[in-house]
Amino acid sequence: MNIYTKTGDKGQTSLIGGRVNKDDIRVEAYGTIDELNSYVGQAITQLNDRVFNELKEELVTIQHELFDCGSDLAFARDDHPYKVEASMIEVLERRIDEYMKEAPELERFILPGGTQAAATLHVCRTVTRRAERLVVGVQREFKINDAVLQYLNRLSDYFFAAARIANSRENVQDVEYIRSAKVFKKGKKK
């Protein structure tokens, strides 16, 4: 089996149902989601099985869901069933709430970093935000599954919470941004 087709040699690629230039905003959006998926895979390899088994399983599920996001964006027409749905967002919200309860309280913004896994999860968070911005651009030009945008918005929050857990469970303290005002209220844990 050849993995190269030569069909993109002139700067075009296929969407489901048509061809577009490789710099089409839809290709940029799902390409960024693909980049994010690779960072998620890297984060998985950096997490200790014993301490982070459930987090690793969640991240594998997220990898599948990121493929679903890309699939929903890769259609040239809007006459197809979507894969991303509200229940996926609800799962993220529950996990965010659980992780934020477990992590030490915050008063200020924190610097991305700590353990290697936490640093990679922060990269995941920022790449998710970039993907989200690109999907907003796609949404201005094309009809899309709105759940993709909502999912990415929640996913960046999930990665923040997961990065905090990656540090907390390894007894590594988050580093507060020294010029940050107190932006989080103490005593407001759910």
Textual characterization of the structure:
By secondary structure, the chain is mainly α. The protein has one domain: Cobalamin adenosyltransferase-like (Hypothetical Protein Ta1238, Chain: A, Up-down Bundle). The chain is 59% helix and 4% strand. It has 5 helices and 2 strands, in the order E-E-H-H-H-H-H. The chain has helices at residues 25-46, 49-73, 86-102, 116-141, 146-168, and strands spanning 12-15, 18-21. The chain has a two-stranded antiparallel ribbon. Strand 1 (12-15) and strand 2 form a beta hairpin. Helix 1 packs antiparallel against helix 4, helix 2 packs antiparallel against helix 5 (146-168) and helix 3 runs parallel beside helix 5 (146-168). It is elongated. The N and C termini lie far apart (53 Å). The mean pLDDT is 90.
Q: How would you spell out the order of helices and strands?
A: EEHHHHH
CATH topology description = Hypothetical Protein Ta1238, Chain: A
How would you classify the helix and strand content by structural class? mainly alpha
Mind summarizing the main beta sheet? 2 strands, antiparallel
How many domain units? 1
| Strand line-up of the largest beta sheet | 1-2
Question: What CATH architecture do you see?
Answer: Up-down Bundle
Mean pLDDT metric: 90
Number of strands: 2
Organism: Priestia veravalensis
Family: Belongs to the Cob(I)alamin adenosyltransferase family.
Keywords: ATP-binding, Cobalamin biosynthesis, Coiled coil, Nucleotide-binding, Transferase
InterPro entries: CblAdoTrfase-like (IPR016030), CblAdoTrfase-like_sf (IPR036451), PduO-typ (IPR029499)
